[in-house]
Amino acid sequence: MDIDGKFYLGKVFDPKTGKTTDQPLLYDPEDLTTHAVVVGMTGSGKTGLCIDLLEEAALGGVPALMIDPKGDITNLLLHFSDLLPQDFTPWVNPDQARKEDKTLEQAGAEAAALWKKGLADWGITPDRVRTLGESAHFAIFTPGSDAGIPVSILASLKAPPIPWDSNRELLREKIAGTVTALLGLVGLNDIDPVRSREHILLSNIFEYAWSRGKDLDLGELILQTQSPPFPKLGVFDVNTFFPEKDRFSLAMLLNNILAAPAFQTWIEGQPLDIPSLLYTPDNRPRHSVFYIAHLTDAERMFFVTLLYSAVEAWMRSQSGTPSLRAIIYFDEIFGYMPPIGNPPSKQPMLRMLKQARAFGVGQVLVTQNPVDLDYKGLSNTGTWFIGKLQTEQDKQRLLDGLEGAAASQSAGMDRSAYDRMISGLGKRVFLMQNVHAKGPVQFQTRWAMNYLAGPLTRTQIPALNRLVQGSAEAVETAGPETVAAAPASKETPTRPRGEAVAAAAAAGAVSVKAPQAGPSGMGTATRPAVPSGISEIFLPNSLTFTQSLQMAGKAQGKPYPQEAHSSGLLYRPAILAQANVRFLNRKYNLDTEMLLASMVPDPDPRGVVRWENYPAQSVASTTLDDRPIPEARFAALDPPLNDTKILSSLQRDFEDWAYREAKATVRANEKLEVYAGPDVSQADFRKQCSEAARAGRDEEAKKVEATYDSKIKSLQEKLQREQRELEQDEAELSDRKLEEFSTHAETLLGLFGKRKRRLSSSLSKRRMTSQAGADVKESKEAIQDFQAQITELAQERAQALEEVNRKWSEIADDEQEITVTPMKKDVLLDIFGVAWVPYYIVQVGEETLELPGYGTA
User: Fold this and answer.
1) Residues ≥6 apart with Cβ < 8 Å to 661
2) Higher-confidence position of 262 and 666
3) Is residue 839 very low, low, confident or very high in pLDDT (cuts 50, 70, 90)?
4) Per-residue pLDDT at 136
5) How large a percentage of the chain has pLDDT more than 90?
6) What three-state secondary structure class fits 101?
7) What confidence score (pLDDT) does residue 509 get?
8) Over the stretch 189-238, which tens digit does the pLDDT of each residue have?
9) HSE of 28, CA atoms in CB hemisphere, 13 A
10) How many CB atoms lie within 10 A of CB 436?
11) How far apart are CA 840 and CA 35, in angstroms?
């Protein structure tokens, strides 16, 4: 079936005859950017319709995130192109088989036969089912459980990758939802964000961190609950607003979650990172099912809120597009967007309904409870799929919602007509109201390509993921955020003296000292003077002592000894150099910046530095301290760090090196005029190319279709005229034959009677009959010719469209890399000077050594 990129959902249903027609119901995926609502009672065929829609999305290369509270959508992984009984047997319902007095093998064979026939009846070939399995990467995620792929929520507490100043309202709403969900998880429900001091405190902790670009984790949130990083809340100091004793109680509630063994699955596994949940590293679309049937109501609300907030933050970082970029599917929204009440999930869902269209993100919201929907929030929804409803109240409530939607879109609605149509709906028959179409249409859903086994349980999920080989690949995409940071054990075994020194070196300590007479022998309490005219920089003590110990322990593969303890901080000097390099190229749509940083802890006294040998993470000036930590000690300032002339020369040398070294790689598709700088991932670039190629393909395809449709229409008009002429010619031929017969009869009678009739009259009638017959033959031949031309044009149209698809597919893959160098004026020195780097002075028995106090854990 040629569906031209549309979603094949079924066939049009004729309510007058009560039968399904042969006309396919094709749905334009672009219409989903204005979202869709699916409503129908249990048994209406609602799940089958939704599975159909998601199958078509996968075939169309559209990624999807699916929230599955009941286990129905797990059926998306049950696509068996070979249609073998042994494929179906593991997934048939054993209880149903026993009731029907069948073995599992018999039930599997019957299911396979049923699906084979059902697919054939709807014109769906095994090749199309096979293509479905290859079109997307399917996987089931289980937040709070390791039955499927576990989901780490730690990324949800990190600062979103969008500027705070220009997104304050959005980020504060995200914070409010996250905090409300988190407090609900610890049992604090129905709280008012404006009146609850718990909500106000946690929200301010989030805002303090995120506005400074700093991430949070649960451990840090707990500690900052006890010791907030700010002195006041409003006009009151923190202790007046929220006494220390009460803050400790809140911290204990939060800590109980973190300490609970069952909660560890919430901080392990796949990060809640939307790009990696939508696409694999090789740009293959994902269909990610989030199975949450095993969670409590509070845990479900917690996860749904975090997921929607993550999607919203990701969406705001994308460029606008009119095309469908992704689908967010929610299988049962009962309780998440009610007309009364304001659960944490409601606001992000409503904002998505209002704003997601501009970013090409479509929501599909499903429910069997029309009474529990906020129809004001759904008033801008473009498509409604309405199935059989259970009660008259459900129908009237739904009609109220449809009227509201029609009013908001300045459209009229005949309520009584819709009432009759909805009342007459049967199983698997739906009424589709699409604002992008001319009017409502009834249709019967097609046969699902996936086996509809019904709700699957948590115990079946491991086998499901193995079925599509999804588990291993998904886990491989998990980054370092998936590893939970466990508190240091109080029963860490000791180890022989001397291993601590090796551990410190492995963990990245710049200097390891031999045993000395205590920490007082390391450096001085007086800070050496930095040469005049040279900047003095204080790097922050960004690693806690515990983090530094854990890093050292991980580096050596065993825990740090229990007796290790800190005796203070020691600052060691280093040259810190950082340049801000801007790359500006209008042709390549390139306007990006690069920071090149080097930190040289022990420079050659002669002032010779190979900067590329000392790469360092870039440093934000806002993170630097303006003074050293009180009571810290300082190492000596040895040459060349005390020589103004050499340091000034090194500064110039670093600027020259940065100019020579800085290069930006631009991914380019010249034919599409799509360019991506180094801050755009390969997957995002490929998506941009795909979207541009799709737009070009669609535009060219429309022109091709218009050209051929015009020609076909012209031939069809000629065919219709010729068919009308044939009818006239056949009528005339019939008349001529009758006249000829009459004339011949009169001529014969004249030969034997008194009245004579000329023979020439009969001959004339004969000639006229022959001419009429020739006209009929000519019309028939012309009709055959027109029909052949129409068929040929239709074939040419299909071939031309296929060529358009092939051409734009090749164009989308035409990628190259272009190296761009900066102009000298665009290399700006950001930081250069003597940096004081903090180290922990660590005592391990009689040994004294140093561990980094600056860096990232």
Assistant:
1) 596, 611, 612
2) 666
3) very high
4) 95
5) 41
6) coil
7) 42
8) 777 788 899 999 999 999 999 999 888 888 788 878 887 888 899 889 99
9) 12
10) 12
11) 55
Tell me if 362 sits within 8 A of 337, measured CB to CB. no
CA 603 to chain centre: 47
d(CA 426, CA 327): 28
Look up the CATH architecture of domain 1-148+271-480.
3-Layer(aba) Sandwich (3.40)
Q: Read off the pTM.
A: 0.57
Burial letters 321-353, b for 16+ CB under 10 A, else e: beebbbbbbbbbbebbbbeeeebbbbbbbbbbb
Q: What's the CA gap between 289 and 304, in Å, rounded?
A: 13
Share of the chain above pLDDT 70, in %: 89
- Reported as a pLDDT band with limits 50, 70 and 90, residue 793 is confident
Token pair in block for residue 84: 């073998």
* Alpha helix ranges (H) inside 15-148: 46-59, 85-88, 94-99, 104-121, 126-135
Q: Give the Cα separation of 420 and 670 in Å (integer).
A: 56
Burial 26-36 (b: 16+ CB within 10 A, else e): bbbbbbbbbbb
Secondary structure (3-state) at 390? coil
Residue 766's pLDDT band (boundaries 50, 70, 90)? low
Cα 454 to Cα 47: distance, rounded to the nearest angstrom: 9
Token representation of residue 437: 């179409």
**pLDDT tier at 746, thresholds 50, 70, 90:** low
Output the DSSP codes for 496-561. -TTHHHHHHHHTT-S--PPP-SSGGGSSBSSPPPPPTTSEEEE----S-HHHHHHHHHHHHTSPPP
CA 89, distance to chain mean position in Å, is: 33
Task: Specify the 3-state DSSP secondary structure of 318.
Answer: coil
Please give the pLDDT value at position 520: 47
Whether residue 229 has a cis bond before it, omega within 30° of 0: no
Pairing of strands 361-367, 19-27: unpaired
